Amino acid sequence: MNAIASVPTEAVVSVQDLTVTAGARTLLDHVSLDFGARSLTAVVGPSGCGKTTFVRSLNRMTELTAGLAVEGSVRYLGQDIYDAAVDPVVVRRRMGMVFQRPTVFPMSIFENAAFGLRLVHAEEDLVDAAVTEALQRAGLWDEVRAELDRPALSLSGGQQQRLCIARALAVRPRVLLLDEPTSALDPAATQRVEATLQGLKEEIVLVLVTHNVGQAARISDRIAFLHSGKLIEVGPTADILERPRVKLTEQFITGRYA
Amino acid sequence: MATAPILIGLRPEDNLALDRSGHLGRRRAFDRLVGWLLPLLFLVAILPIAWLLYYVGSQALPGFTLATLTTDPSGATGGLFAPLVGSLTILLLGTGVAIAFGFLGGLVTAEYLGEQWAGWIRITANVMVGTPAIIIGLFGYLVFVIYFHWGLSLAAASVTLGVFMTPYVFRATDIAYGSVPPHIREAALGSGARPRQYLFRVASAIAFPQVLGGIFLAMAIGVGETAPLYLTTTTVVLPPTGLFAPASALSLYIWTGFQTGLILPTAIRLAFQAAFLLLVIVIGLNVLVRVIAARARRRLEGLFQ
Description:
The complex is a heterodimer of chains A (258) and B (305). Chain A has 258 residues and is an alpha/beta fold.
């Protein structure tokens, strides 16, 4: 609130020369990319292009995998998140993450949504209000408001995934990282999650990893195309889809990528 | 909309009823055979247990009254109060020891140790499970009875039984925490949980039923063990008066009852009654394990997909 009241940068998250290696293999090769406020950036690319590694390096989840080395910088509101003085746990509370498969915990719906708040011992009234708000923003409130005490594992896959989004939102992060959040869902559930994300981009920074160009076309403002760990092209969604400047990008978005 | 008929030249295999290459008759015969065999095998498995229960019950139940549970033995007659209290006390104290070492060991092995250390500890636990109980008893005798000067006592028997039960609790804990799905761990840490918060709030919620089941299973195995107690306590006719006083146990009572019974037949009845009590406790604990497992399966359904 005090020390960095004014932010000297346009970007909420600024990635500079990010290189991630696993032994002799290079997973990400000098990637630089900024994320401004209120945006939904889709990170697309073929399997193994490094898009998951990229999104995981934005909140230091890379550190949970043994043998990964990260170089370059990731700045959150101007501060290097890899600085020795920065606690990775705190970074992950500001930049939440949603995964491919729903990852609800074996607790009630309410306690799942409240999970992040319980970690910081938030007060009870605050938890109630934040859980309600998070479930509303995740587009799940109307379906679960009457049965918040039900086990979360009894929800459908799509509902579980929106609960995971609510869980991430409840701690009011500025950034939400989504790693193929609809790849395990059916079309109807996918549509609900996409609608949720479209509503959220008015408020926070969304980084959406997807292998699905159609999804990127439907909901993103901007597309970043990764290939073999390199950022090939980035630009407004319409430009990338209609006038890609690089041949490789065109091949990928038109489905002719070999 | 009517479809125009198409003309197809028939081949021999188009006549489905004549094609015998699937050996339908042979498969049906095999199905019938298995249908008869399975209930038969079930009977073979269940009969010895049913007969054991019936026989022990028929020897123990005549003359089995409330007094059998509430009065101390007196010579070759009387009740089983002292050995029952002794058995339960030894079991509870031993379970405490087994939880202290087995649960903590399993937790550390599953969550904190590298593969190599964990591997050595798992091998050690497996060797302990395979060690004959009398050797555990001998260890208890040498270490607790002799070296620590505890004598033949409740303390020596409990700790020795605890040593015997430890690897069972260890294995249940190690497997329970090791089987928490990795994506759940990632999600918890990705939500900003500290490793310890993950361990206590998420992993334990998933692992706890299995750990509890392991503890009750260790109790079911431990309560009837005779060998760890044989060298560490001795049969007395009164309940234990302190940690370092000897404590009687049902399993020991069966042993001494039959030895005495060669001279005094009433001792045999008492031994059968002790055996019956032990069987009831063991079956009760096993049912408890089943109930815990079934409840956990319902609660965690969908988590491991």
